[in-house]
Amino acid sequence: MKQLVNRLRTGGSKPVLVIGDVMLDEYFFGSVQRISPEAPVPVLKEERQEWCLGGAANVAANCQHIGCEVALVGLIGAHDTESEHFLSLIQEFKISPQGLIRSTQRPTTTKKRFLAKNHQMLRMDLESNQPLTRDEFKEVTRRIDALMAPASMVLLSDYAKGVLTRELIEYVCTRAHERGCTVMVDPKGPDFAKYRGVDYVKPNLKEFGQIVKFFGLSPEQSIENNGKEICKKLDLKGLIVTEGERGITYVAPDRVIFSPACRREVYDLTGAGDTVFAFIALGLSHNFSMEECLKLANHAAAVAVSHLKTYAVSLEELIDRSTELTEKIYTDWVQLKIELDWLRAEGRKVVVTNGCFDIVHPGHIHTLKEAKKCGDILVVALNTDASVRRLKGSSRPVNSFTHRALVMSAFGMVDFVVSFDQDTPQALIEYLKPDVLVKGGDYQKERVVGHDIVASYGGSVHIVNYLQGFSTTGLIKRLEHQKSSVG
Fold first, then answer.
1. 461 in helix, strand or coil?
2. How many Cβ atoms from other residues are within 10 Å of residue 384's Cβ?
3. pLDDT < 70 regions, the chain
4. Domain count, the chain
5. DSSP symbols for 208-220
6. Comparing C-alpha atoms, which of 69, 111, 62, 65 is closest to residue 86?
7. Which of the listed residues 318, 338, 362 is the one where a domain comes to its end?
8. Set 186, 199, 274, 358: catalytic member
9. Is 285 buried (19+), middle (13-18) or exposed (0-12) by CB count in 10 A?
10. Is 274 a known active-site residue?
11. 22 and 171, same domain (yes or no)
12. What is d(CA 154, CA 199) in angstroms, rounded to the nearest whole number?
């Protein structure tokens, strides 16, 4: 997964145009301590409100958050308070409001959810599913013509709220194919024939069953067989069926790919389909294979469902370093620098500490814990075996770099491990430019290697006092003494 993420970070993507039913998700959080005397229903005492982007806007937010150049076309209410919350959120995600149309005929589509201790009690919807008026259709097509860049990804997010009519989809497909764009749709019934002419359709398992029924196919047939028939009827390049906790199946006229889901604790399924939609589009815009797109989408969905409310997943979150320990380990300084630059761009503070860490003892653990408190991302710089031999003698290290790096990467407080072959980490510090440099021991800051480099750009140096009685050299001497005594 790390290799895919690095390709996403360094490769250029195509512009993304999201068209469809934009929504506002409104959450009322509170507590329940009694039943209403008026009816046998719980009384929710409101404690706070929160707002999130939903529908097509959530797709756009996901795309924007992972680095795409995004434009969004949709309708919001002309005068309601929900539209003001919506526009404020759009601004937070730095999505241009240029494609948003103020409608006097419909409200801002809003899903109001009422929760007690994060458990949903009730949902109330504010919406209109009437088709676009002629004036609205003309204005939507005008915005699409202005915002659809050549060779872009066009995502149709259909929640059956009246925006993506058959006429509008035909218009989008015509313009998209004239401009060399790829069109992908997240569908909603009941009229699935209106998607004829798009390139990819991404139904969930329930929607897939509805499409099967719509075209009169047998529900007893496999996803593969029915999927190929649907591809023929809609003239698709491929059908992407999300199957919840099982994974994703891709069906094309000439092949089938299954990508299993990533196992994570499910907290909230809201918006997970939008996340899959956005990440498959991202992969296709970087010319990834479909296998790679599905893997990317499964990892993103696993992150999304582990959060309450709709959630825009970052590229960094796709790398589960708690289980992929070797993905923490770097011997290439350039690749690590790329990782750290992205993290700094997200506002993370980078801490570097260094050492041989040959035989790990409580003193080392104390230093690592204290170092982690100094920032957000902890990088442990390890001497290579040759470097350790020059410093400690020919009998060291006891453990090879590979083994020492694996041990370091297993600690939850350590985010990255990097090797250096020099006698000191000065060159590495100068290259990585950490925000904080941490050293364990009885030092004055002015004697710490690299302190002047860090100070030159406004960083800081922190000294962690060793725990008394713990030393790798001391441990080795005691073992040698015990061995000679037994002999």
1. strand
2. 18
3. 2, 263-271, 306-311, 316, 319-326, 467-487
4. 2
5. HHHHHHHTT--TT
6. 111
7. 318
8. 274
9. buried
10. yes
11. yes
12. 10
